[in-house]
Amino acid sequence: MSATQINKVVLAYSGGLDTSVILKWLQDQYNCEVVTFTADIGQGEEVDPARLKAEKMGVKEIYIEDLTEEFVRDFVFPMFRANTIYEGEYLLGTAIARPLIAKRLIEIAKETGADAISHGATGKGNDQVRFELGAYALNPEIKIIAPWRDWDLSSREKLLAYAAEHEIQIEAKKGGGSPYSMDANLLHISYEGGELEDPWCAPNDDMWLWSVSPEDAPDQDETIEIDFEKGDAVAINGEKMSPAMLLKTLNQIGGIHGIGRTDIVENRYVGMKSRGCYETPGGTILLKAHRAIESITLDREMAHMKDDLMPRYAGLIYNGYWWSPEREALQTLIDKTQDRVNGSARLKLYKGNVIVNGRKSESDSLFDESIATFEDDDGAYNQKDAEGFIKLNALRLKVQNRRK
Predict the structure, then answer these.
(1) What string of DSSP letters covers 214-234?
(2) pLDDT given at position 176
């Protein structure tokens, strides 16, 4: 891409080493104006210092936004209505944040008259795909600059040398920083790199930041109740909360009890396998509670259909197709299934475990005790009907056996 093609670019900017170098590199390489966008999606780090850093580098238009409520309400909760898990284990904490960031990049580009956006995702990862598929879906004409695919600054040492050469202020992290590549938001925190690149190497216990180990969790269990309305959690122990506050509270409770740690090897969309460790305490609790409410409020075939569709839906999110027509169509169907997913789930939290020990729905439960009971059901269910049901379903099996 020729430098003359770019007049203004919106950069997804954290203020860290990578994006600070990218900011200067864009200014020099393209001789263009750079707009910075810093999103607070619950990563637990101060975002305001990014403003001062951007100002020192000559940035005139600086966007710093708290998107935590929008993130949980419009992205995390819709995803959890589908009980979404990628490859049986991953709760998609990183993947679900990317469409929101892509959306705001495109919106800010329109507001500021920028003709390009830029990000700090590497050429080996999934995030480059997620950002760019989202951006193109929302603005087919947008130009995208991905420095990690263009420049020769291929290591941390080269980035630091570039920063020193151009007098870019880089603050050292307390304690020398983490040896891992980390990503955090209100749903999860992830760890990759370092010794984790060996899938046989167990992670150090001091790596985990949000949760205690199950062995060190309290010896006394804790019971909580989560209320749901139309498939979304709305209250904990009877206290109504906003989506972001509810997830934050579940993270805190779950972390105390060592809940939500996973260590997995996943298949990246770009073709390689990658080992990562994740902490998702609130999401782990939420998933269990939501399935508990669905177990009494969803019709059998509707529930099974959702389970059939979930892996496809999870793959769309993981691979960056949040803004695709197929994801939106699936979302419409999923949301329709949640119309009567109302009620309360009671859960016991104990040393890394989330144990459902109660579920109820005053108006929408399909559980009929008069039918399900092992005691006298007063004719609510005629057990003789089962004989014909079994024979009809066995017919094809009998025919198959006779042919053998």
Answers:
(1) GGGS-SS-EEEEEEEETTEEE
(2) 53
Same domain, 51 and 161: yes
| DSSP secondary structure letter of residue 90 | B
Dump pLDDT digits (tens) for 94-108: 999 999 999 999 999
* Tokens read off for 1: 């891409």
Residue 128 belongs to some domain of the structure: yes
Q: Please name the residues in contact with 63: beta carbons below 8 A apart, sequence gap of 6 or more.
A: 35, 36, 37, 38, 104, 108
CB 5 within 8 A of CB 143: yes
Do the bridges between strand 239-240 and strand 232-236 make them parallel or antiparallel, or are there none, so unpaired?
antiparallel
pLDDT given for residue 171 in this prediction: 67
**Residue 316 pLDDT:** 98
For residue 50, how many C-alpha atoms fall within 13 Å in the half-sphere facing its CB? 26
113 and 254 fall within a common domain: no
Domain boundary among 154, 176, 198: 176
**DSSP 3-state assignment of 275?**
strand
User: At 34, is the secondary structure helix, strand, or coil?
Assistant: strand
Q: Does residue 90 belong to any structural domain of this protein?
A: no
Q: At how many degrees (to 10) do helices 98-112 and 127-138 cross?
A: 50
Do 227 and 132 lie in a common domain? no
Whose CA is closest to 72, among 289, 262, 233, 278? 233
| Domain contains 311 | no
Q: Please, what is the average pLDDT of the chain?
A: 94
pLDDT lower than 50: segments of the chain: 1-3
From the centroid of its chain, how far is CA 244? Answer: 13
pLDDT of residue 379: 73
Quote the CA–CA distance of 90 and 100 in Å, as a whole number: 19
List Cα–Cα distances, 381 to 104, 371, 394, in angstroms. Answer: 56, 6, 21
Give the 3-state DSSP-derived string for 179-205, with helices as H, strands as E and coil as C: CCEEEECCCCEEEECHHHHCCCCCCCH
Q: What is the CATH number of the domain that holds 170?
A: 3.40.50.620
Active-site annotation, residues: 18, 98, 127, 181
pLDDT tens for residues 124-144? 899 999 999 999 999 999 999
